[in-house]
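Lab intake sheet, docking and co-folding queue.

SAMPLE TYPE: protein with bound small molecule
LIGAND NAME: zinc ion
LIGAND FORMAT: SMILES
REQUESTED OUTPUT: full 3D complex as structure tokens
PRIORITY: normal
SUBMITTED BY: R.K., bench team

The fields below were copied directly from the construct record.
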Amino acid sequence: MNAGAGETPAEQSWLIAANVVRWRRYGEGGQELRPGTKSYRGGSKVYVIETYAGTGHEQLTTIGRGRHTGSYIRIDMATRNLHTFRAVPVYSPTVLRLCAEAGVGGCWQQRGDAEELAARLGVLAAGYRTGHWDAPHPTPCRCHECL
Ligand SMILES: [Zn+2]
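RESULT FIELD (auto-filled):
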């Protein structure tokens, strides 16, 4: 009942979520297609807990359910293999624990901060998908841009 000054709202953590591309270009000139990534199934949801500004956020660290075991893993991957970056509130104790253990500060108290970076990563990922290969898309192509 007392919501006066000095009351701290219940703690809320925001993370950046994204989805793994269904298909990615692979091999020489990106002429082959592979479903998802080595570690994640295509379409699965992951949390981005760290990005590498020094390399233009081309790589990032994620937490998600692994392709083979279905249990949470923490792994570095290419930004271009993720899409639909967005800020999400996180309640899962497992995700929050893994995030804390990583010690990289990937959780935000402020939704706006997570949203800002999510928007930037979305633009960057699309750019990396386009710019990564110096050959045209295979035909037919099922990569994220072509689907
Ligand atoms: Zn394509």
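REVIEWER NOTE: Residues 13-131 form one domain.
SIGN-OFF: pending second check by T.M.
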